[in-house]
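Incident log, entry 3
Record: NfeD-like C-terminal domain-containing protein (152 residues)
Problem: checksum mismatch between cached and fresh output.
Input:
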Amino acid sequence: MLAELFTDYALWLILGFLLIISELFVTGVIAVFFGIGAIIVGLLTLFGITESLTSQLWLFAVISLVALFGARRHFKGWLTGNVGDAPSSDAGLGDAVGSRVTVLTDFVHGSGHVQMHGAKWDAESSDDLKAGDVAWVSGNRGIVLKVSASQR
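Fresh output:
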């Protein structure tokens, strides 16, 4: 009974699609390759190329593992990105240290806004800065600039 159930091509196709769909919820970029193996075995069974449960299981294992080890690295880069996509420094602000900025709003409780290279930035400072003052970038915390009244 179990052997007849597994030789049915529909079971392999359903299993394949379920494995591929499961990859959307558990993104380890592994289940999709077993799904591809199951779909291929389902199609081979549908066309009568393989009939026995033993040959189907062997084909499933071989196709899935070849797909997994042969293409996983390539597909994982597509699905998760790579280090080249990440900025080289925190928020790409490594070159901003020492830059001159214009204070746009009075700093209240140590925070305000500055303009750097034509863009408005959130900023923090322990200095009392007023709109129109010139300040200098001394660092950053994420995308918030740390500025001071004097160049350090």
